Amino acid sequence: MKDYYAILGVGREATQEEIKKAYRRLALQYHPDRNPGDKEAEERFKEINEAYAILSDPEKRAQYDRGLLGAPEFQAEDLFDLFAQVFGFRSGRTAPRGEDLEAQVEVALEDLLGGKEVEVTYARLVPCESCHGQGGKRVACPTCGGRGVVETYRQGLFSGFVTRSTCPHCKGQGYLLAEACPTCRGRGRVAREERVRVRIPPGMDEGQILRVPGYGNLAPGGPGDLYVRLRIRPHPHLEREGPHLVYRLRIGLAQAALGTRVEVPGLSGPIPLDIPPGTGHGEVFELPGEGLPYPGGRGALRVVVELSVPKHLSPKAKELLRAYAEEVGEKVAPEGFWEKLKGLFRK
Ligand SMILES: [Zn+2]
Ligand SMILES: [Zn+2]
C-alpha cells in the first residue's frame, strides 16, 4: 500500500484543509498539460489524485489509516474529473479544445540573418454563424439524459465503485440533432481563411516548427494551436550547412596558377576575396562571421574552389598551352591526335 500522506507531503494528523491545499499545489505542478510528454510527471499526477481521492474522503481515510482499504482502482477520466471538481471548472472531456493545425511558410535565406515577420495564411474551423455553433436544432440525448456520460457500477476487492464512460449514443455531447443547420451541415463549425503574423527568429532551420498558441480550430473548450513549419527558398548561389554557408567558386587554370581577386556573393552583399597563386581544386577559404546567426555567434562562409577546365579552346589558346606544356615538361597529345582518332572510329 502506498503512503498517501508522503505523496501529498502532509503529516498523518493533517486537517482536511491542509490536505486540500497540498493537493491543489501538487496537482497544478504535475498536471499533464503543464508537462507534455513527461511520463514521470504523469505518474506523479496519478498518485497525487489517488492520494487525494482517499484522504479527502473521511470514511476512506479512516479505513486506509487502519490498513483496511484495498488497492483502489481509478480510471484516468475519474482523475481529471476530480481535478476539475477541486478547481471548480468543467473537465476537458465534456468541452473539447479545438484541434491543432499545421501551416507552412517560405522565407529566403537572407531573412534568416536578422529574423523576419511573415504573414501566414491558413484555414481554420470557426463556429457557424447561422446556428451559433449549435449545428442545428438540438434535443437532449435519451440514453444519458443530456449528461454525456453513463455510469457503471463495478465490484472491487473490498468495496464497489462507479466508473463513468462517455455515452456511446451521443458520443459524450449530451444531445442529438433534430434538424441539421444547412450552412454547416450539422457540424457547428465552418472553415474560414485566417491570417496571422509570425516572427521567424534568426538562424532557424529548414523544417523547424513554430507554435502559435490559440490559432488552431475553435471549439467550445477553447482554441487549438497552430504549428507553422518553416521552409527556406533555395538560394541561387549559396548552400546551407547548419550555421555555415557554402559558395562554390569556379576559377580558370590561369587564375588558379597566377592568383586573382574575386567577389563572393555574401548574404549581405559582395565580399572581396584574394585567391593566392597556386590555389588547387577543392581548396576551401573560410570567411568567419559571414554565415548565419546561431545562439552565441555567427557561422562562416566557406568558399570551395572548383577548377574550371576549358572544353573549347581557340587556336591561339591551344598554341599557348602547348608552349606552356613544353616549358614545364608536361607530355601532351600531339596536334591533331584526337581528330584522327575520332575519324578512325567513324569509319
Ligand atoms: Zn448520450
Ligand atoms: Zn450551422
Please give the order of strands in the largest beta sheet.
10-11-17-14
**Roughly how many Å apart are the termini?**
97 Å
CATH homologous superfamily grouping of the largest domain: DnaJ domain
Q: Give the number of domains.
A: 5
Q: Strand share of the residues?
A: 25-35%
Mean pLDDT: 88
Query: Which CATH architecture of the largest domain?
Result: Orthogonal Bundle
Largest sheet data: 4 strands, mixed
Helix-residue proportion: 25-40%
Order of helices and strands: HHHHHEHEEEEEEEEEEHEEEEEEHH
**CATH fold-level assignment of the largest domain:** Helix Hairpins
Q: What is the CATH C level class of the largest domain, in words?
A: Mainly Alpha
Number of helices: 9
Shape: elongated
Bound molecule kinds, no repeats = zinc ion
The total of beta strands comes to 17
If you compute it from the alpha carbons, what radius of gyration comes out, rounded to the nearest whole angstrom? 36 Å
Summarize the structure.
By secondary structure, this protein is an alpha+beta fold.
